Amino acid sequence: MTQNIVDPASKTPVTLLGLGAMGTALARAWLAAGHPLTVWNRTPARAEPLAARGTGVAATAAEAVAANRLLVVCLLDDASVDEALDGIDLAGKDLVNLTTSTPGRARARAEWARDRGARYLDGGIMAVPPMIGTPAAGPYVFYSGSRELFEEHRDTLAVPAGTTYVGADAGFAALHDVALLSAMYGMFAGVAHAFALVRKESVAPADLAPLLTSWIGAMAGSAARTAEQLESGDYTQGVVSNLAMQVAGTSTLLRTAEEQGVSAELLTPYLALMERRLAEGGGAEDLTGVIDLLRR
Ligand code: NDP
User: Fold this and answer.
1) Whose CA is closest to atom 1 on ligand 1?
2) Residue 242 DSSP symbol
3) Would 142 disulfide with which of 112, 127, 173, 195, CB 3.0-4.6 Å?
4) pLDDT tens for residues 10-55?
Protein backbone atom coordinates (compact mmCIF):
# COMPACT_ATOMS: atom_id res chain seq x y z
CA MET A 1 0.00 0.00 0.00
CA THR A 2 1.41 3.44 -0.87
CA GLN A 3 1.17 6.21 1.63
CA ASN A 4 0.51 9.80 0.69
CA ILE A 5 3.24 11.74 2.50
CA VAL A 6 2.68 15.49 2.61
CA ASP A 7 5.59 17.75 3.48
CA PRO A 8 4.07 20.87 5.08
CA ALA A 9 7.32 22.76 4.53
CA SER A 10 6.75 22.67 0.77
CA LYS A 11 3.25 24.10 1.03
CA THR A 12 2.40 27.79 1.22
CA PRO A 13 1.09 28.71 4.66
CA VAL A 14 -2.39 30.24 4.59
CA THR A 15 -4.20 32.54 7.00
CA LEU A 16 -7.97 32.30 6.78
CA LEU A 17 -10.39 34.75 8.38
CA GLY A 18 -13.92 33.39 8.67
CA LEU A 19 -15.11 29.92 9.64
CA GLY A 20 -18.69 30.00 8.50
CA ALA A 21 -20.01 27.20 6.30
CA MET A 22 -17.79 28.25 3.38
CA GLY A 23 -14.72 29.21 5.42
CA THR A 24 -14.78 25.88 7.24
CA ALA A 25 -14.95 23.99 3.94
CA LEU A 26 -11.98 25.99 2.61
CA ALA A 27 -10.02 25.34 5.81
CA ARG A 28 -10.63 21.60 5.60
CA ALA A 29 -9.44 21.50 1.98
CA TRP A 30 -6.16 23.32 2.74
CA LEU A 31 -5.59 21.18 5.81
CA ALA A 32 -6.19 17.98 3.87
CA ALA A 33 -3.67 19.12 1.24
CA GLY A 34 -1.03 19.71 3.93
CA HIS A 35 -0.96 23.52 3.95
CA PRO A 36 0.01 25.05 7.28
CA LEU A 37 -3.09 26.97 8.28
CA THR A 38 -3.82 29.77 10.74
CA VAL A 39 -7.46 30.67 11.28
CA TRP A 40 -9.46 33.30 13.07
CA ASN A 41 -13.20 33.49 13.59
CA ARG A 42 -15.23 36.09 15.50
CA THR A 43 -16.92 33.30 17.45
CA PRO A 44 -13.95 31.25 18.69
CA ALA A 45 -15.94 28.04 19.29
CA ARG A 46 -16.20 27.49 15.53
CA ALA A 47 -12.43 27.00 15.35
CA GLU A 48 -12.33 24.20 17.94
CA PRO A 49 -12.80 21.24 15.56
CA LEU A 50 -10.00 22.60 13.37
CA ALA A 51 -7.67 23.19 16.33
CA ALA A 52 -8.04 19.51 17.14
CA ARG A 53 -6.67 18.75 13.66
CA GLY A 54 -3.55 20.86 14.05
CA THR A 55 -4.69 24.23 12.75
CA GLY A 56 -3.22 27.34 14.36
CA VAL A 57 -6.03 29.28 15.95
CA ALA A 58 -5.34 32.99 16.43
CA ALA A 59 -6.95 34.86 19.30
CA THR A 60 -7.39 38.01 17.20
CA ALA A 61 -7.68 38.85 13.53
CA ALA A 62 -4.48 40.92 13.82
CA GLU A 63 -2.59 37.89 15.13
CA ALA A 64 -3.87 35.73 12.27
CA VAL A 65 -2.94 38.37 9.68
CA ALA A 66 0.57 38.68 11.12
CA ALA A 67 1.13 34.91 10.87
CA ASN A 68 1.33 34.58 7.06
CA ARG A 69 1.76 36.57 3.89
CA LEU A 70 -1.17 34.88 2.10
CA LEU A 71 -4.37 36.06 3.73
CA VAL A 72 -7.74 34.67 2.62
CA VAL A 73 -10.89 36.34 3.88
CA CYS A 74 -14.28 34.62 3.67
CA LEU A 75 -16.74 36.57 5.81
CA LEU A 76 -20.44 37.27 5.54
CA ASP A 77 -20.32 40.58 3.68
CA ASP A 78 -18.30 43.69 2.94
CA ALA A 79 -19.18 45.29 6.28
CA SER A 80 -17.82 42.29 8.19
CA VAL A 81 -14.55 42.56 6.25
CA ASP A 82 -14.32 46.22 7.30
CA GLU A 83 -14.98 45.29 10.88
CA ALA A 84 -12.57 42.33 10.99
CA LEU A 85 -9.64 44.15 9.32
CA ASP A 86 -10.18 47.55 10.96
CA GLY A 87 -6.84 49.06 11.99
CA ILE A 88 -4.80 45.95 11.10
CA ASP A 89 -1.44 46.36 9.35
CA LEU A 90 -1.69 44.81 5.87
CA ALA A 91 1.63 46.06 4.47
CA GLY A 92 3.29 43.37 2.34
CA LYS A 93 0.29 41.03 2.54
CA ASP A 94 -1.39 39.17 -0.31
CA LEU A 95 -5.07 39.65 0.39
CA VAL A 96 -7.53 37.29 -1.32
CA ASN A 97 -11.10 38.29 -0.54
CA LEU A 98 -13.64 35.53 -1.19
CA THR A 99 -16.45 37.42 0.52
CA THR A 100 -19.32 37.94 -1.92
CA SER A 101 -19.47 41.54 -3.06
CA THR A 102 -20.56 43.83 -5.89
CA PRO A 103 -18.16 44.91 -8.67
CA GLY A 104 -18.11 48.46 -7.28
CA ARG A 105 -17.36 47.34 -3.74
CA ALA A 106 -14.65 44.96 -4.97
CA ARG A 107 -12.97 47.85 -6.84
CA ALA A 108 -13.18 50.02 -3.73
CA ARG A 109 -11.74 47.16 -1.64
CA ALA A 110 -8.83 46.80 -4.11
CA GLU A 111 -8.02 50.49 -3.68
CA TRP A 112 -8.42 50.17 0.09
CA ALA A 113 -5.93 47.26 0.09
CA ARG A 114 -3.48 49.12 -2.16
CA ASP A 115 -3.58 52.12 0.20
CA ARG A 116 -2.54 49.74 2.99
CA GLY A 117 0.37 48.28 1.01
CA ALA A 118 -1.25 44.91 0.17
CA ARG A 119 -1.66 43.15 -3.18
CA TYR A 120 -5.33 42.34 -3.78
CA LEU A 121 -7.27 39.59 -5.49
CA ASP A 122 -11.05 39.40 -5.37
CA GLY A 123 -12.90 36.11 -5.69
CA GLY A 124 -16.42 34.95 -6.48
CA ILE A 125 -17.07 31.37 -5.40
CA MET A 126 -19.11 29.29 -7.84
CA ALA A 127 -19.82 26.44 -5.46
CA VAL A 128 -21.62 25.53 -2.26
CA PRO A 129 -19.60 24.27 0.72
CA PRO A 130 -20.02 20.50 0.07
CA MET A 131 -18.44 20.97 -3.38
CA ILE A 132 -15.26 22.52 -1.95
CA GLY A 133 -12.25 20.21 -2.14
CA THR A 134 -14.20 17.85 -4.41
CA PRO A 135 -12.91 18.44 -7.97
CA ALA A 136 -15.42 15.98 -9.46
CA ALA A 137 -18.24 18.30 -8.30
CA GLY A 138 -16.78 21.07 -10.50
CA PRO A 139 -16.34 23.88 -7.97
CA TYR A 140 -14.43 26.95 -9.12
CA VAL A 141 -13.73 30.52 -8.14
CA PHE A 142 -13.65 33.59 -10.40
CA TYR A 143 -10.62 35.71 -9.56
CA SER A 144 -9.80 39.27 -10.58
CA GLY A 145 -7.28 41.89 -9.53
CA SER A 146 -3.52 41.41 -9.13
CA ARG A 147 -2.34 38.93 -11.75
CA GLU A 148 1.03 38.66 -9.98
CA LEU A 149 -0.68 37.57 -6.77
CA PHE A 150 -2.85 35.11 -8.70
CA GLU A 151 0.10 33.56 -10.55
CA GLU A 152 2.22 33.31 -7.42
CA HIS A 153 -0.47 31.58 -5.38
CA ARG A 154 -2.31 29.77 -8.17
CA ASP A 155 -1.49 26.27 -6.87
CA THR A 156 -2.55 27.10 -3.33
CA LEU A 157 -5.77 28.76 -4.52
CA ALA A 158 -6.52 25.72 -6.69
CA VAL A 159 -6.65 23.39 -3.66
CA PRO A 160 -10.26 24.06 -2.56
CA ALA A 161 -11.69 24.77 -6.05
CA GLY A 162 -10.72 25.41 -9.65
CA THR A 163 -9.45 28.88 -10.55
CA THR A 164 -10.71 31.13 -13.35
CA TYR A 165 -8.89 34.47 -13.66
CA VAL A 166 -11.11 37.01 -15.40
CA GLY A 167 -8.99 40.17 -15.44
CA ALA A 168 -6.98 42.83 -13.68
CA ASP A 169 -10.12 44.86 -12.93
CA ALA A 170 -10.86 43.78 -9.35
CA GLY A 171 -14.60 44.13 -10.00
CA PHE A 172 -14.71 41.45 -12.70
CA ALA A 173 -14.86 38.41 -10.39
CA ALA A 174 -17.96 39.80 -8.67
CA LEU A 175 -19.40 40.82 -12.04
CA HIS A 176 -19.04 37.30 -13.47
CA ASP A 177 -20.26 35.74 -10.22
CA VAL A 178 -23.39 37.89 -10.09
CA ALA A 179 -24.08 37.47 -13.83
CA LEU A 180 -24.13 33.69 -13.41
CA LEU A 181 -26.15 33.83 -10.20
CA SER A 182 -28.69 36.14 -11.85
CA ALA A 183 -29.10 33.69 -14.72
CA MET A 184 -29.55 30.94 -12.15
CA TYR A 185 -32.41 32.77 -10.43
CA GLY A 186 -34.13 33.25 -13.79
CA MET A 187 -33.87 29.48 -14.25
CA PHE A 188 -35.19 28.83 -10.73
CA ALA A 189 -38.16 31.10 -11.48
CA GLY A 190 -39.03 29.11 -14.60
CA VAL A 191 -38.68 25.80 -12.80
CA ALA A 192 -40.90 27.02 -9.94
CA HIS A 193 -43.59 28.02 -12.43
CA ALA A 194 -43.37 24.67 -14.22
CA PHE A 195 -43.80 22.69 -10.99
CA ALA A 196 -46.69 24.96 -9.96
CA LEU A 197 -48.49 24.20 -13.24
CA VAL A 198 -48.57 20.44 -12.60
CA ARG A 199 -49.01 20.65 -8.81
CA LYS A 200 -52.69 19.82 -8.59
CA GLU A 201 -52.63 17.21 -11.37
CA SER A 202 -51.61 13.56 -11.15
CA VAL A 203 -48.18 14.40 -12.57
CA ALA A 204 -45.48 13.33 -10.14
CA PRO A 205 -42.88 16.07 -9.55
CA ALA A 206 -40.26 13.32 -9.78
CA ASP A 207 -41.43 12.58 -13.34
CA LEU A 208 -41.30 16.23 -14.39
CA ALA A 209 -37.84 16.85 -12.91
CA PRO A 210 -35.74 14.93 -15.49
CA LEU A 211 -37.79 16.45 -18.33
CA LEU A 212 -37.06 19.93 -16.99
CA THR A 213 -33.38 19.16 -16.57
CA SER A 214 -32.91 17.97 -20.13
CA TRP A 215 -35.06 20.76 -21.66
CA ILE A 216 -33.21 23.51 -19.76
CA GLY A 217 -29.92 21.91 -20.78
CA ALA A 218 -30.95 21.85 -24.44
CA MET A 219 -32.12 25.48 -24.36
CA ALA A 220 -29.04 26.73 -22.49
CA GLY A 221 -27.05 26.42 -25.71
CA SER A 222 -28.88 29.50 -27.01
CA ALA A 223 -26.53 31.70 -24.93
CA ALA A 224 -23.81 31.18 -27.56
CA ARG A 225 -26.15 32.45 -30.33
CA THR A 226 -27.15 35.42 -28.19
CA ALA A 227 -23.46 36.29 -27.74
CA GLU A 228 -22.86 36.13 -31.51
CA GLN A 229 -25.85 38.39 -32.14
CA LEU A 230 -24.72 40.90 -29.51
CA GLU A 231 -21.25 40.97 -31.02
CA SER A 232 -22.44 41.40 -34.62
CA GLY A 233 -25.28 43.78 -33.70
CA ASP A 234 -27.56 41.75 -36.00
CA TYR A 235 -30.26 40.18 -33.85
CA THR A 236 -31.80 38.38 -36.83
CA GLN A 237 -28.60 36.37 -37.43
CA GLY A 238 -29.27 32.63 -37.15
CA VAL A 239 -32.78 33.13 -35.74
CA VAL A 240 -34.58 29.86 -35.13
CA SER A 241 -37.84 31.08 -33.60
CA ASN A 242 -38.46 34.76 -34.21
CA LEU A 243 -39.89 37.17 -31.65
CA ALA A 244 -43.23 37.68 -33.46
CA MET A 245 -43.90 33.93 -33.38
CA GLN A 246 -42.82 33.67 -29.73
CA VAL A 247 -45.00 36.58 -28.60
CA ALA A 248 -47.99 35.00 -30.40
CA GLY A 249 -47.39 31.90 -28.28
CA THR A 250 -47.24 33.68 -24.94
CA SER A 251 -51.03 33.90 -24.61
CA THR A 252 -51.04 30.08 -24.45
CA LEU A 253 -48.62 30.22 -21.52
CA LEU A 254 -50.77 32.79 -19.70
CA ARG A 255 -54.06 30.98 -20.41
CA THR A 256 -52.59 27.68 -19.19
CA ALA A 257 -51.47 29.34 -15.96
CA GLU A 258 -55.00 30.66 -15.50
CA GLU A 259 -56.58 27.26 -16.25
CA GLN A 260 -54.27 25.64 -13.70
CA GLY A 261 -54.96 28.32 -11.08
CA VAL A 262 -51.33 29.44 -11.04
CA SER A 263 -50.10 33.01 -10.75
CA ALA A 264 -48.06 34.05 -13.80
CA GLU A 265 -46.13 36.65 -11.80
CA LEU A 266 -42.78 34.99 -12.45
CA LEU A 267 -43.36 35.01 -16.22
CA THR A 268 -45.08 38.31 -16.94
CA PRO A 269 -42.09 40.68 -16.52
CA TYR A 270 -40.17 38.84 -19.22
CA LEU A 271 -43.19 38.44 -21.51
CA ALA A 272 -43.88 42.20 -21.20
CA LEU A 273 -40.36 42.97 -22.41
CA MET A 274 -40.82 40.63 -25.39
CA GLU A 275 -44.03 42.48 -26.31
CA ARG A 276 -42.32 45.86 -26.00
CA ARG A 277 -39.52 44.81 -28.33
CA LEU A 278 -42.08 43.48 -30.83
CA ALA A 279 -43.98 46.80 -30.68
CA GLU A 280 -40.70 48.58 -31.46
CA GLY A 281 -40.35 46.54 -34.67
CA GLY A 282 -38.19 43.62 -33.53
CA GLY A 283 -40.52 40.87 -34.79
CA ALA A 284 -37.92 39.23 -37.06
CA GLU A 285 -35.30 39.15 -34.32
CA ASP A 286 -34.34 36.60 -31.73
CA LEU A 287 -34.95 37.42 -28.04
CA THR A 288 -31.66 39.33 -27.89
CA GLY A 289 -33.35 42.75 -28.22
CA VAL A 290 -34.77 42.31 -24.71
CA ILE A 291 -31.22 42.83 -23.40
CA ASP A 292 -31.16 46.34 -24.86
CA LEU A 293 -34.45 47.15 -23.14
CA LEU A 294 -32.88 46.30 -19.77
CA ARG A 295 -30.01 48.76 -20.15
CA ARG A 296 -30.63 52.05 -18.35
P1 NDP B 1 -21.85 31.97 7.15
O2 NDP B 1 -23.05 32.77 7.49
O3 NDP B 1 -21.87 30.51 7.38
O4 NDP B 1 -20.60 32.56 7.96
C5 NDP B 1 -20.38 33.95 8.05
C6 NDP B 1 -19.00 34.20 8.56
O7 NDP B 1 -18.80 35.62 8.66
C8 NDP B 1 -18.78 33.62 9.96
O9 NDP B 1 -17.42 33.27 10.10
C10 NDP B 1 -19.10 34.85 10.84
O11 NDP B 1 -18.50 34.78 12.10
C12 NDP B 1 -18.45 35.93 10.02
N13 NDP B 1 -18.94 37.27 10.34
C14 NDP B 1 -20.18 37.77 10.14
N15 NDP B 1 -20.22 39.07 10.54
C16 NDP B 1 -18.99 39.37 11.01
C17 NDP B 1 -18.41 40.53 11.55
N18 NDP B 1 -19.12 41.65 11.68
N19 NDP B 1 -17.11 40.50 11.92
C20 NDP B 1 -16.38 39.36 11.77
N21 NDP B 1 -16.87 38.21 11.27
C22 NDP B 1 -18.16 38.23 10.89
O23 NDP B 1 -21.50 32.32 5.64
P24 NDP B 1 -20.65 31.42 4.59
O25 NDP B 1 -19.42 30.94 5.24
O26 NDP B 1 -21.55 30.46 3.94
O27 NDP B 1 -20.31 32.53 3.51
C28 NDP B 1 -19.13 33.31 3.58
C29 NDP B 1 -19.01 34.05 2.25
O30 NDP B 1 -18.92 33.08 1.22
C31 NDP B 1 -20.19 34.97 1.96
O32 NDP B 1 -19.76 36.17 1.39
C33 NDP B 1 -20.98 34.14 0.97
O34 NDP B 1 -21.76 34.94 0.09
C35 NDP B 1 -19.88 33.40 0.22
N36 NDP B 1 -20.39 32.21 -0.44
C37 NDP B 1 -21.09 31.29 0.28
C38 NDP B 1 -21.67 30.20 -0.36
C39 NDP B 1 -22.47 29.19 0.38
O40 NDP B 1 -23.18 28.41 -0.27
N41 NDP B 1 -22.38 29.14 1.70
C42 NDP B 1 -21.54 30.04 -1.83
C43 NDP B 1 -20.72 31.02 -2.47
C44 NDP B 1 -20.20 32.08 -1.80
P45 NDP B 1 -19.29 34.15 13.35
O46 NDP B 1 -19.03 32.66 13.30
O47 NDP B 1 -18.70 34.82 14.52
O48 NDP B 1 -20.76 34.49 13.16
Assistant:
1) 20
2) -
3) 173
4) 899 999 999 999 999 999 999 999 999 999 999 999 999 999 888 9
